[in-house]
Amino acid sequence: MRRSVAFQGAPGAFSTVAARQLAAGCKAVPMETFTEVFESVANGKLYAAVIPIENTLYGSVHENYDHLLKYGLTIEAETFVRIVHNLIAPPNVKKGGIRRVFSHPVALDQCRHFFEANPAFARTPYYDTAGSVKMLMEKGLTDAGAIASADAAEIYGARILQKSIEDDRQNYTRFFLLKKAKIARPSNAISNVRYKTSVVFTVKNIPGALFRALSAFALRDLNLTKIESRPLRGKPWDYLFYVDFIGHTSDPAVTHALGHLAELADMWRVLGCYPAASKQIS
Amino acid sequence: MRRSVAFQGAPGAFSTVAARQLAAGCKAVPMETFTEVFESVANGKLYAAVIPIENTLYGSVHENYDHLLKYGLTIEAETFVRIVHNLIAPPNVKKGGIRRVFSHPVALDQCRHFFEANPAFARTPYYDTAGSVKMLMEKGLTDAGAIASADAAEIYGARILQKSIEDDRQNYTRFFLLKKAKIARPSNAISNVRYKTSVVFTVKNIPGALFRALSAFALRDLNLTKIESRPLRGKPWDYLFYVDFIGHTSDPAVTHALGHLAELADMWRVLGCYPAASKQIS
Fold this sequence. Notes:
Two copies of one chain form a homodimer. Chain A has three domains: about 90 residues, 3-Layer(aba) Sandwich (D-Maltodextrin-Binding Protein, domain 2); about 80 residues, Periplasmic binding protein-like II (D-Maltodextrin-Binding Protein, domain 2, 3-Layer(aba) Sandwich), CATH 3.40.190; about 90 residues, Alpha-Beta Plaits, CATH 3.30.70.260. In chain A, strands 1, 2, 3, 4, 5 and 11 form a six-stranded mixed beta sheet that branches. Chain A has a five-stranded mixed beta sheet with strand order 8-7-9-6-10. The first copy, chain A, has a four-stranded antiparallel beta sheet with strand order 13-14-12-15, with helices on one face. The first copy, chain A, is α/β, with parallel strands linked by helices. In chain A, strand 1, helix 1 and strand 2 form a beta-alpha-beta unit. The first copy, chain A, is elongated, with a radius of gyration of 21 Å. Helix content of chain A is about 30%, strand content about 30%. In chain A, helix 6 runs parallel beside helix 7 and helix 8 packs antiparallel against helix 9. The interface between A and B is large, with 47 and 47 residues.
C-alpha cells in the first residue's frame, strides 16, 4: 500500500507539486483545512503532511506556525515551489465573457496588475486555487474564470486563457514535510549536507529580552535565515518567536546555542532539523 | 465641512469603532481595499486613514505593513479595539434555518469552536464582516447568517442571534491613524505622555546582522514592543523588519539608537512617533 501524505486544498493545488518533490511515490490526500491536515498526522491516521509555510510575496502562513507549535509534528524536509498563476476557464468560455474570477484571496492579491488591466473582472474569494477550477467545471459557470496552477487546468479539463498572470515572477512558496517522529541524527554518510534547524521560543516582556535570546545564535556565528513573531494566545501583545538557522542540532555550535537559549527563554522547542533545500531563485 | 477619514470595509466594520476613538467628529468613508485607503490619503483627497495593523489572535495585517512602506504616510496615533463577534441574521431567520455563515476569513477563523459546535453551518468567506451583514439584508437570504460587530447588526437592521461567539475573549485589534504629514515633535505641555516610535529597516543577509541592528535599541535599554518581518519584494528570502519601541524621536537615547541603526542598516525609516495607547486588556 502506498503511504499517504495529507495536504490542504483540492488536487492541483501548489501543495501537490510540493508533495511530489518532498514525498515522491506517496499518495497525496486532499483535506479541507490545515487543522485536518495536522490532525491526520498527529493522530497517526496518515504518514506525513505537506504544508506551505511562507511565500516570498505574501509572507508567512501564520496559521501553520500556530499548528506547528500545537500539534508537535517534526519538520523532516523543506522545498521551494515556483508559483505561476494562470487565468483558467471552462473550454467554452472566452476571456471577454468573464465577469467573475474565483481564487484563494492570496492568489487574487498576487495578481493585482492583472485585475487593474481587466476592470470587468470581479475578484471573487474562494477556498482555494485548484478548488475554484473544480467548482467552475462542476457548476458549468459560463461567466466565470479561476486563478490556479496549470496542473489544476489539466486535472479538471479546463483551459488556460492567460499564462503567468502573477505581478511578480519571484514568487516562491516554501513547503515543509511533517511527520510524527523524533528529530533524526545525521549519519556520517550525509555529513556534507547543509542542514537547517527550526526553533520556537518565548522571552519575558522586558527590554532587551529578544536581543539576548538572539545572542545565543549570534555569538556562535549561526546564520539566521528566518525570524517570525506570532501572538501568544492568552497573553495579548506577548509574542512567540520562530527562528530558522543553518546548522544541525548535533553540531557543537548549535548544541551550545540551544543550551544558551534554554537559559534565556521562558519556553523553547526544536521543531525540526532537516537538509536545507536549494532556493531555486531564477 | 467635516474632515474625512478613510477605512476599509463597510459601515459597521471594526475600523469604524477605531475611527470614533482616533478621529472623533470626522466622517468615516468606506473603501473596498486597503490600497484605496492608502491612496486616498497619499494623493491628498482625504484627511486621514484608520487601518488595522495587528490582532492579538491573528497577528499582523501584513498587507498594511507593505502599504506603510510604499505610501510613506505617517503614523499619528494608535488605539486598541476589543473584537466581539456575533452571529447575525435577517429578522425573519432563525438559527435552525441557517446553512451558510458569511464573514471575513479572519473572523471565520476566530470562531472555530462555534463552527465545531454548529456543524450544519458552512463557513463562507466574504470580503468583510459588516459587508456580509449588508449583503444578507440586501439579497434577503433566508438560509444564511453573518459574523460581524453589534454595530453592523444595528446599522443594517439585522438581528443578533448569538453574542460573543469568538474562541478567545482576549481578542484585540490595534489600529493606526495615518496622515500625510511630517513626524511631529512633542510640545513641553505633553512631555509626560509615553510615546511609541515605529521604524522599518533592512539589513544585509549575513550572520548576526539582525542581532547587531537590534543592539542599537538594546544598548540604550529601549523596550521593543513589536518586531515583524516581511518579505522584501524582488529579493526572495530577504526581509524587512518593522520595530516598535517605547520612546520619542527627540529623546537622546532614541536619537542615539537611530544614529546607530543608520550605521548598521542598509535602509531605514521612521514610520511615526505617537502617544502609546493604553492596552485595555481585560
